[in-house]
Specification:
- The structure holds 2 protein chains of 2 kinds.
- Chain A is about 35% helix and about 25% strand.
- Chain A is an alpha+beta fold.
- Chain A has 2 domains: about 5-130; about 160-295, Sandwich (Jelly Rolls).
- In chain A, the strands form 2 sheets. In chain A, strands 1, 2, 4, 6, 7, 9 and 11 form a 7-stranded antiparallel beta sheet that branches. A 4-stranded antiparallel beta sheet of chain A has the order 3-10-5-8, with no helix packed on it.
- In chain A, strand 1 (about 160-165) and strand 2 (about 175-180) form a beta hairpin.
- In chain A, helix 1 packs antiparallel against helix 6 (about 105-125), helix 2 (about 35-50) runs parallel beside helix 6 (about 105-125) and helix 5 (about 75-95) crosses helix 6 (about 105-125).
- Chain B folds into 2 domains: about 1-405, no CATH class; about 430-530, no CATH class.
- In chain B, strand 1 (about 260-265) and strand 2 (about 265-270) form a beta hairpin.
- The radius of gyration of chain B is 27 Å and the shape is globular.
- Classes of the chains: A alpha+beta, B alpha/beta.
- Chains A and B meet through helix 7, strand 5, strand 8 and strand 10 of A and helix 3, helix 4, helix 10 and helix 19 of B.
């Protein structure tokens, strides 16, 4: 059984549908929608005014429309609706034989019809209030943050675990620059690794601190062109001497639980340059990039022999 | 619930995007995106994008987006970054299809469309590493959605709807000029609506007013879409009214890739195929539930259009239904009519999958709600759910090679191998390489650490470096004579049958079908380890000299 309010809202919706059909039809005069629009307004007023206290004159929309609905559509929309309503009522009252100009343009009638439809839907409880621009902006910003977090993981913004000292000579001497790298896996080809470092005749020394929770037999592998060496706590574990071709060398180290200083020295003389250092802490698994969670960058000065202490 | 499903899909993308292989086209698209980016950053003086391979004939909207995304995602490497972007864009396609289903038949149909498309293995598999067909399909789905919304608002769609429609069509055009078909659909829909309105009013003045309105809508959407398209297409910017049509003409008779491929029981050239090519692939690579519901929905839709399409109160739903039908059937039928060269299954027609799924979802929902008994409805929903779970299980089993999915009508993957193209994109190569690494570690650990292994195969050595360590290198980088230690071969071009008598040490298998094999070439002479010797068999071992009867007698 429909209540009085529901019945009035149904009438308002039907009148609004008729008004919209006329408004959007390019072959119809916009003024012909006035009758339906005013009918929809009257029905809406009957539906939303408590206990049938329907105002005699509905022109003052701000005066009788419940505050909830006004807040939902916004004060500007309420003001614009109130401005157009007298012209619509005048058109409705006008006898058909009496020529009189209609004050509203097609665009204004369309906008009025659209806003009234929104109001009726809100009264029915079917529509959600139009989010304010700052709410939309906040949602868009939140989505952007999620995407950025996904594509630019936090680790890219923090210190990388390998401290790379890049030398402009092949023997780890002379002018140097420091850069922090996430892992040692570079294929520079014939390019220079960074500005102010030549494409040939350069060297890099990477230092990092390796954390082990238990005594472990670690296997290190270095694949490079040209040569490279891997040291753990100052002991040479991998010696990969090569010049002009890719070579892989490996070595094992029995390490105690605790923090160990890992150093990789790489030298490039000429031609292609690439280097990759891998490790395995589980005999069943082939060497793979060392997990970042097991490493931290040394905090001591670059010249220190054991910067992990 | 749909949002929860989408969130789960997004999490799955984030967790798995690194597991998908690098496909053939990706390196070119990455380079094209960088060149378009340089076109802008150099102030239009770096003209590399204007002549780049055949890519300049394609809009590079997605490639440009990829270049920007790679910049944001640095230090993530190019291929993983583009795979992540592909996954995110694919999820956007899921959202578009969900909204399309909702706009057609309400929230339940929308949710069903979302779930069906997510579980469509071919769609999911293409999301990550198909830089052309997948983004085009996403833009196509959104264009259809906004077109359905615009149909609902006819004869006066809101400016917002038209702007969104223009952007969606523009994005589709900026990936493939074939998106022009969307503008044709729009023109047809507007034309039919105007004709219907004119017929209803029986007035030339009314008809003229509607024609003016339709022209304004069509022109504004086309202009907006064209502008969006040009952003990512430097070559077309230099002559925006002519060059896109030149590209369309070239693409319609695209014959750059001539290859033989299995089809049924034959091995055919891709430019010499019959009308049955696409129906076969759509029939065998579409999940059974979608296939059945699509068939019912098509028949039902045609009947509904014939019975009620002309009624004034049904004109908008009828137009939406007609649009959906055209979006599904017109492109493949046109390709068959034109005799276009086709290959790689229905990869180039991936864009019809979202509307297919939407129609299947709408049909499923409509059939179930028509059941009178409550228990019957519950049983029907349960059956649908069970079929979807079965699809999920199949998809998980195939992961990350969902693109090789074939339904049970052809006997699954195993039934399709040898008869149809399966892993045409080489997605199985990384798994094969990892299998090789594992095999060497398990069997030759003593020498593994100090060895560099050279491999050959139908794959990109550089792309493989993403998946295996640097001691696995392409034979092309071997100093001196170029020969290989191992062969990695997927099924296309009989790559798996190269080095025919070399021992197989690893195989990538899914659902009983072998998709990729790794062979150890090290026991063969060098001449049988080069590319020239890839098809040579080793000479048969000399048989022991037969002892004649006479000799036997002498010795005996």
């Amino acid at each position: 059984m429909m209540t009085e309010t529901e019945r009035a809202l149904s009438v308002a919706e039907a009148a609004h549908r008729a008004a919209r059909a006329v408004t959007v039809d390019p072959s119809c005069e916009p003024r012909s929608a006035a009758h339906h629009l005013v009918g929809a307004w009257e029905a809406l007023a009957r539906a939303v005014c408590p206990d049938g206290h329907v105002p005699e004159d509905i022109e003052d929309v701000g005066g009788w429309l419940p505050a909830r609905l006004q807040a939902a559509v916004g004060p500007r929309a309420v003001a614009e609706l109130g401005r157009a309503l007298p012209a619509l009522q005048a058109e409705r009252r006008r006898p058909a034989w009496q020529p009189e100009s209609f004050l509203l343009g097609r665009g204004e009638v369309e906008a009025h019809t659209w806003r009234l439809g929104q109001l009726i839907a809100l009264a029915r409880g079917e529509a959600t209030p139009r989010p304010k621009w700052h709410r939309r902006a906040a949602i868009a910003a939140a989505a952007a943050v999620v995407v950025l977090l996904a594509v630019r993981p936090w680790w890219t913004l923090t210190l990388q675990p390998w401290r790379g000292t890049y030398y402009a000579r092949s023997d780890h001497s002379g002018k140097w620059q420091i850069r922090y790298d996430r892992q040692i896996d570079f294929d520079w080809g014939r390019d220079a690794p960074m500005e102010d470092v030549p494409a040939d005749q350069f060297s890099v020394r990477w230092d990092s601190c390796l954390h082990l929770d238990a005594p472990t037999k670690a296997i290190f592998q270095s694949i490079s062109d040209d040569g490279s060496r891997v040291y753990v706590d100052g002991d040479l574990i991998v010696l990969n001497r090569t010049r002009g071709k890719t070579q892989s060398r490996g070595g094992e180290a029995q390490l105690e639980a605790g923090v160990h200083h890992v150093r990789v020295d790489y030298s490039e003389f000429s031609g292609d340059a690439h280097v990759q250092v891998l490790a395995s802490f589980d005999a069943d698994a082939p060497p793979a990039p060392i997990p970042v969670s097991m490493l931290h960058a040394p905090r001591g000065p670059a010249s220190e022999e054991d910067p992990c202490e | 619930m749909a949002w929860a499903w989408l969130a789960a899909a997004l999490v799955t993308v984030l967790l798995t995007f690194r597991q998908y292989g690098v496909t053939w086209d990706e390196a070119w698209h990455l380079a094209y995106g960088s060149r378009i980016s340089q076109w802008y950053s150099s102030g239009f003086t770096d003209t590399g994008a204007l002549t780049y391979r055949i890519n300049y004939l394609y809009g590079g909207g997605y490639d440009l987006l990829g270049a920007i995304f790679r910049g944001i995602a640095r230090p993530m490497e190019g291929f993983p970054a583009i795979h992540l972007l592909g996954g995110l864009v694919g999820v956007l396609g899921l959202v578009g299809t969900w909204k399309l289903g909702r706009a057609l038949a309400g929230p339940r149909a929308g949710l069903l469309a979302l779930v069906m498309l997510t579980l469509h293995p071919v769609w999911w598999g293409h999301m990550f590493n198909n830089p052309k067909d997948s983004p085009f399909a996403v833009a196509y789905a959104w264009s259809l959605y906004y077109m359905v919304v615009a149909i609902g608002e006819l004869p006066r769609p809101s400016r917002g709807t038209l702007a969104k429609l223009a952007v969606a069509i523009g994005l589709a055009l900026s990936v493939r000029i074939a998106g022009l078909i969307l503008l044709c659909f729009l023109a047809l829909v507007l034309g039919l609506f105007v004709a219907h309105a004119g017929w209803l009013r029986r007035s030339w003045a009314a008809l003229a007013a509607h024609v003016r309105r339709a022209l304004a809508i069509g022109t504004s959407v086309t202009a907006g879409a064209w502008a969006v398209m040009l952003i990512g297409w430097p070559w077309a910017q230099l002559d925006p009214l002519t060059r896109p049509f030149i590209a369309l003409r070239r693409m319609s008779s695209f014959d750059a890739h001539q290859r033989k491929m299995p089809f049924g029981d034959a091995y055919v050239w891709n430019y010499d195929i019959g009308w049955e090519y696409l129906p076969h692939y759509f029939g065998f690579q579409t999940p059974e539930l979608v296939l059945v519901m699509l068939t019912i929905g098509t028949l039902w839709g045609v009947a509904a259009l014939l019975r009620r399409g002309g009624r004034p109160e049904h004109v908008r739903p009828a137009l939406a239904l007609l649009l959906l039908g055209m979006a599904i059937f017109v492109p493949p039928i046109y390709a068959v009519y034109k005799g276009s060269p086709l290959y790689d299954g229905y990869r180039h027609f991936l864009f019809v999958v979202p509307p297919m799924v939407a129609l299947a979802a709408v049909t499923t929902e409509a059939l179930i709600v028509r059941l009178r008994r409550r228990w019957a409805r519950a049983a029907a929903w349960a059956l649908t759910g069970a079929l979807l779970v079965d699809l999920l299980v199949q998809s998980v089993r195939l992961h990350p090679h969902q693109v090789v999915y074939f339904n049970r009508l052809v006997g699954g993957v195993a039934g399709a191998i040898g008869r149809y193209d399966t892993d045409y994109y080489g997605n199985t190569n990384p798994e094969a390489m990892l299998g090789l690494q594992r095999w060497l570690w398990d069997n030759e650990r003593a020498t593994y650490l100090d060895s560099v292994y050279y491999f050959t195969g139908c794959l990109s050595g550089k792309a493989m470096h993403l998946h295996v360590p640097g001691n696995f290198r392409s034979f092309k980088s071997r100093p001196g004579e170029q020969y290989s230690d191992f062969s990695v071969g997927y099924l296309r071009d009989h790559c798996d049958t190269r080095f025919p008598d070399a021992p197989q040490i690893f195989a990538v298998e899914r659902d009983g079908g072998v998709l990729n094999v790794v062979k150890d070439l090290r026991g063969r002479p060098v001449s049988h380890r080069t590319e020239k010797g890839a098809r040579r068999r080793l000479p048969a071992p000399k048989a022991a000299p037969r002892v004649s009867e006479k000799d036997q007698e002498v010795s005996g």
